[in-house]
Amino acid sequence: MRVLLIMNPNSTSQTDGLFRRIIPALRSVPGLRLRGVFTHHAGHAEEICRGLTRADWDLVLAVGGDGTVNEVINGLLGPAGADTPSPQSLPAVAVIPTGSANVFARALGFPSEPVAATTMLVQLLREDLRRTIYLGTWNDRWFAVNAGFGIDADVIARVDEARRLGFAATPLRYLNAATMVWIRARRTPPRIDVVGTDAAGQRLNLSELPLFVASNTNPWTFLGPLPVVTNPRNSFELGLGLFGLTDTSGVRGILSMLHLVGFGHRPVIEDWLEKRTVQFDDVTQVTLSCPTKARFQADGEYVGEFQRADLASHADALEVFAPREAYPVSSRTWRRVLRDFIRVH
């Protein structure tokens, strides 16, 4: 197997010592031939992957976070809306997570710790265990995890500003940014209009939402070690999951935000907040628009300000090496995740 290893040296947990552990593990796979390339600037992984086919490489292995994975996918598949290549004609994709959130890898079922993830990947490579997954698009770009306007995009933009100043993207920094954005949103909330269609042909039409997230997987993000689950049915084998809040003001607004990140999932609280939440599953296409330009994020990366974004779901778009069982999202999820987190750290 010919493997192109794309490494982002700016990832949160990437070190020389890490490579001294993961490279020998990968080389232990019989017949594996490995070539490594470091990225040098934003968009470099996309440039490296542009035009590659399975005749060039059997596998592209990204060592990085969700941003690196996003670049690899966009490089391999090219602009959305053009003649999309079949997944069998492209190199398969795998990931060793070294970013700050690593949503893609964790939602596929990998541990968040890179050495543990490498151990799992080595076994998958030995047994040739792979599957095809759905991907999302926004305008002419692809996303693997989530995308949208609103409060989450503002939070990511604030954290990106801090990172450019040399601060790490820690869960505490995300929490601090989320608090500041929520306070500002109470005074001047975003206004997002949503029009779309689900797989059953049902039309969606919503107006002036302050927060709206389109997700391609479940969980759609993590708060430190804890998964954020808004659409429990969602997966890499279904269309987009949509979740929004109609109001973030007052006590119910605070509870709605806490509900978004996993707190308060009890019937009495959910019934109380039902009128403030909107949720749709298996959506094939959706248009998001704002009265003025607003911040937009894709796969946890701030990508700029737009007034409109056309999103769609694409079935069986990419072949990945991954376990068959996705990340656990049952009622015991938090207990299991915390146990794993404590064991690793």
UniProtKB/TrEMBL annotation:
Family listed: Belongs to the diacylglycerol/lipid kinase family.
PANTHER family from the UniProt entry: LIPID KINASE YEGS, SPHINGOSINE KINASE
Name of a matching Pfam family: DAGK_cat
Co-factor(s): Mg(2+)
UniProtKB keywords: Kinase, Transferase
GO molecular function, one term: ATP-dependent diacylglycerol kinase activity
Domain of life: Bacteria
Organism this protein belongs to: Corynebacterium testudinoris
Record protein name field: Sphingosine/diacylglycerol kinase-like enzyme
GO terms for cellular component: plasma membrane
Cross-referenced InterPro entries: ATP-NAD_kinase_N, Diacylglycerol_kinase_cat_dom, Lipid_Phosphate_FormReg, NAD/diacylglycerol_kinase_sf
Matching PROSITE patterns: DAGK
Chain ranges of the DAGKc domain: 1-142
